[in-house]
Amino acid sequence: MYKFTTFLLRVFVYAFLFILLAVTLTPIWLLLVNATRSTVEIQQGISFMPSVNTLNNYGILIGRGLNLPRGFINSLTLSVSITVVSVYFSLLTAYGIVVYEFPGKKFFYNSVLVLVMLPLQLSIIGFYQYMSKLGLTDSYAALILPSIASAGAVFFGKQYLESVVIQDLIDAARIDGASELGIFHRVMMPIAAPGAFTMGIFAFVASWNNFFTPFILISSIEKYTLPMLVQTLRGDVYRTEYGSIYLGLAITVVPIMVIYALFSRYIVSGIAMGSVKE
């Protein structure tokens, strides 16, 4: 009886997980399918089978002046730059908080926690004015440089490093004559690689999907990212071209799916390690 009850419970759990998986993947699949369908086919109803109008939809986008390759390059350049800068300096800051003792350390970390909880919308006006006075508006520098001080990444990095830092290794490296930055690069970075990958994936996805901040700071259309270009599809000239709209949305989603498919194991291992405390 116990084995039968356990079997039924397992079947119920797997069935529930399968339903959750279907609910999650169905909208994404419909988005990809509609990207291959014409406007007429989309208006006829829902279909789960792809069609053959992908090239026609892409031709409509290009014919209307939507430079998707340029937008893709802009998004990739911006996302990669922000990811590298954010992960490196956030881990460096988190390493300093975990390893060193200095006056005001608790106050500094509490300030980081406050910044994590504050939404970007509260500071966007002051941020724009600050970038304007520095002459960085309509420039990627206004989006890349502030990622040096990513409060969320510092918080995650500290939580992760607390579980992997081995003080004896640091002391041994100091005895061998290694500099403090050398210890961070040669000792801590290899140990913190899973956490760095996790932070990098989150930073890349957040930057790729970010529309609000670039929309405020970037005004030149040749510098538009993919989410900004997709926003232009809401114009009247695209109102009836639903297939082209879905294709534009699909192009922005596919890179994120590829990133998660390739690096999902790092997300799991990084978060699991960061949750372990001695």
3D architecture notes:
By secondary structure, this protein is mainly alpha-helical. The protein folds into 2 domains: 2-60; 63-274, MetI-like (MetI-like fold, Orthogonal Bundle), CATH 1.10.3720. Helices cover 74% and strands 0% of the residues. It has 14 helices and no strands. It has helices at 2-34, 39-43, 54-63, 68-99, 105-117, 124-134, 141-144, 151-164, 167-175, 180-191, 193-209, 212-217, 226-231, 242-274. It starts with a helix and ends with a helix. Residues 274-278 have low confidence and may be disordered.
A few lines on this structure:
This protein is an all-alpha fold and 278 residues long. It has 14 helices and no strands. Helices cover 74% and strands 0% of the residues.
List the helices and strands and how they pair.
Elements: H1 2-34, H2 39-43, H3 54-63, H4 68-99, H5 105-117, H6 124-134, H7 141-144, H8 151-164, H9 167-175, H10 180-191, H11 193-209, H12 212-217, H13 226-231, H14 242-274
